Design the sequence.
């Protein structure tokens, strides 16, 4: 009977510890990469809009070469606020599942005005309308491509919904199982609370060291430099949270194990 | 004893022969990368420029037979998947059937995950790196559908498999 | 009768040991259950994790086999383009993306290097400071590519105006050292779809 009790405690403890690890990882994901406000804050803290604004400007300037049109025409055809709004809209569309189309009308209008002003100022005339339209399309597409990460925002959006749904199901399942262990079967399992937390903490350390550290986060380069920096910062932040939580669980586990290690001693008073 | 030795010798000989039959050299791999593939009436081949790039890379860096076989296998899988899809209009990658797109994407990921590939996608272009961290090349319009130039999106499927294939390295000849 | 509690080291050690046992089971399950998946995704992420180097490569040319043993990195300056007839002396870069073309003359990476015996394709904008005067080049003019591993001279054979999509006008030959320079044509407002192309061959003189 004693053996059955011990065996049951071990199994329950193992299950609780596994699901505590899973729940921790999922909660970290839900509070970071799967959280719209977090991502927008990270982007803002990383000066992403400013960097993106400059990247767009540089690309537009490069595209003015061989056009006979001075690069000054691209000055002020778009603003950092427009970049912020469009990026915000695209990020919002990932998390809401609604489509967001970048409105290029304002930029096109500003560009047209700017080109007309340039041509008039310099007494020039566009002899080939197709060539001029080519130029305008190129400039406007630079903005669209850079802001939308060359269409990759759409890919991210598709994947997000699937990942989020799976996360939600697993979170609910984990909470139910852990609750059963910690609260409902507590009489059987109470002494193993410390074990559950300590092993969960050590498990998270394993995940951090052997999986997270296996990724060369600091050298990631994809889509653009500004996007890569944001991605690196988010991944590093997730790793830090993982480590912090693991330390909390280890300390909690040790404390609970200590409290569970006190044995009752009956002392008979001599009369 | 003699019988056992003969049997062992035969086994070893068979192994060596079969290894030679399936082992692919760099020049074989180059031929495979630069071949013209007829897929449902469309002739796919990488552009002359990218053939030069493939040659430059294979000259600079060694590819083991095992890895050459792996890459060749992935190219065959990609061609086979495109042929079996029944699609006869490859002009717009985004309009290909989802199952085909998924298959091709997985093949690209296989090469990336199972070889020493260092490549990324930056500003809509595939960027391939040298082992020393400098850029080897940027690939844009890579596949030419004979008679019609295809955009990078349309050709991405077959091309990235090939582009991914040419950056496989094991022992760099340079900067060693 | 008093009840006292005494800390049992043995019990504490047992709990810690069980914790390590649980972690070991977890690690084994993760390793055998998910190792392939984890490895695949970490490899995929590491594919795009590249320790970049901006150091210039030491270019070396094999004169016997007529081949570059060490090529410049894409984006590196590796020489100059000199056309005396139009007072042109511009930096030559390996690669021809938009950023590189803003610095100087771009060398199409899918073509050969000077001295290798194949086609060399160079591009430049038609703006001042680039190939602005390329259309003034005539048959017989001398073009020099002064690169880090030597000087190579070419004589202009012909010029042509072609459509940007006419790939046959940019032949990539592996056994004929044909230097092809091109720029947008004509000058004017907007992005033109024609190219002014100069063809030159090795000048032994």
Sequence:
């Amino acid at each position: 009977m004693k053996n059955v009790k011990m065996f049951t405690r071990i199994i329950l403890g193992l299950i609780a510890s596994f699901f505590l690890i899973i729940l921790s990882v999922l909660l970290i994901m839900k509070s970071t990469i799967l959280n719209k406000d977090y991502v927008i804050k990270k982007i803002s803290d990383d000066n992403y809009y400013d960097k993106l604004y400059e990247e767009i400007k540089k690309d537009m300037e490069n595209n003015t070469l061989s056009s006979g049109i001075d690069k000054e025409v691209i000055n002020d055809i778009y603003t950092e606020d427009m970049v912020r709004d469009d990026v915000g809209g695209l990020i919002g569309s990932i998390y809401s599942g609604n489509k967001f189309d970048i409105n290029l009308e304002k930029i096109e209008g500003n560009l047209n005005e700017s080109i007309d002003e340039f041509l008039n100022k310099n007494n020039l005339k566009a002899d080939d309308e197709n060539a001029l339209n080519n130029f305008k399309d190129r400039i406007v597409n630079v903005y669209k491509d850079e802001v939308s990460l060359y269409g990759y925002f759409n890919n991210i959006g598709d994947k997000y919904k699937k990942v989020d749904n799976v996360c939600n199901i697993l979170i609910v399942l984990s909470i139910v199982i852990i609750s059963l262990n910690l609260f409902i079967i507590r009489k059987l399992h109470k002494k193993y609370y410390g074990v559950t937390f300590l092993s969960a903490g050590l498990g998270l350390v394993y995940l951090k060291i052997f999986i997270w550290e296996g990724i060369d986060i600091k050298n990631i380069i994809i889509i653009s430099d500004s996007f890569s920096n944001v991605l690196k910062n988010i991944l590093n932040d997730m790793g830090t949270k993982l480590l912090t939580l693991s330390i909390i669980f280890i300390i909690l586990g040790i404390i609970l194990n200590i409290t569970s290690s006190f044995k009752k001693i009956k002392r008979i008073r001599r009369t | 004893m003699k019988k056992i030795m003969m049997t062992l010798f035969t086994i070893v000989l068979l192994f060596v022969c079969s290894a030679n039959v399936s082992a692919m050299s760099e020049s074989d791999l180059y031929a495979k990368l630069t071949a013209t593939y007829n897929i449902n009436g469309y002739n796919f081949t990488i552009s002359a420029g990218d053939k030069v790039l493939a040659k430059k890379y294979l000259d600079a860096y060694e590819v083991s037979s095992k890895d050459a076989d792996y890459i060749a296998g992935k190219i065959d899988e990609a061609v086979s998947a495109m042929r079996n899809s029944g699609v006869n209009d490859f002009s717009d990658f985004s309009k290909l059937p989802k199952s085909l797109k998924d298959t091709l994407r997985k093949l690209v990921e296989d090469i990336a995950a199972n070889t020493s590939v260092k490549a990324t996608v930056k500003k809509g272009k595939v960027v391939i790196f040298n082992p020393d961290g400098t850029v080897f090349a940027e690939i844009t319009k890579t596949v030419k559908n004979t008679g019609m130039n295809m955009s990078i999106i349309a050709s991405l499927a077959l091309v990235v498999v090939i582009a991914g294939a040419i950056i496989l390295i094991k022992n760099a000849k340079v900067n060693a | 009768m008093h009840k006292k509690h005494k800390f049992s080291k043995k019990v504490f050690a047992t709990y810690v040991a069980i914790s390590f046992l649980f972690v070991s089971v977890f690690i084994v399950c993760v390793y055998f259950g998910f190792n392939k998946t984890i490895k695949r995704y970490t490899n995929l992420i590491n594919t795009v994790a590249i320790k970049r180097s901006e150091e210039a490569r030491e270019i070396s040319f094999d004169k016997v086999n007529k081949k570059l043993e060490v090529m410049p990195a894409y984006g590196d300056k590796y020489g100059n383009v000199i056309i005396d007839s139009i007072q042109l002396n511009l930096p030559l870069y390996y690669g021809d993306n938009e950023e590189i073309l803003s610095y100087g003359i771009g060398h199409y990476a899918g073509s050969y290097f000077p001295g290798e015996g194949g086609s060399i394709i160079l591009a430049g904008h038609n703006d001042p400071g680039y190939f602005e005067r390329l259309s003034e080049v005539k048959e017989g003019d001398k073009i020099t590519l002064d690169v880090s591993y030597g000087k190579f001279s070419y004589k202009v054979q012909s010029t042509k105006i072609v459509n940007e999509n006419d790939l046959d006008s940019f032949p990539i030959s592996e056994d004929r050292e044909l230097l092809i320079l091109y720029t947008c044509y004509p000058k004017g407002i907007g992005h033109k779809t024609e190219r002014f192309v100069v063809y030159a061959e090795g000048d032994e003189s």
User: Anything to note?
Assistant: Chain C has two domains: 1-50, 60-202.
